[in-house]
Amino acid sequence: MHCRKDKGVFVNKPFINWRKLQEKAKRHEQMKYHHDVMIATESFLNSVKNPEHNMNNRSDDKKKKNIIRDKHIVKRVSEAILFCGR
User: Fold this and answer.
1) Which residues is 5 bridged to in the sheet?
2) What is the reported pLDDT for 63?
């Protein structure tokens, strides 16, 4: 978790000095924490728009395929055992 106490306007304090909006916004945009949050936001939006590219979903798909395959194997083995038992 990032420490918020060293951050100023737009993060901790309400912005009220409208005459200095451009100056303060420009300075805020150049801060590392702003850049990091923008990257995280873009990544989050991409995962929402394209859930198939999300790692968790890809691993879930792989798990589902493994379960289907394993069920198929268990079914075939049990059929073979029943056949031999008859």
Assistant:
1) none
2) 84
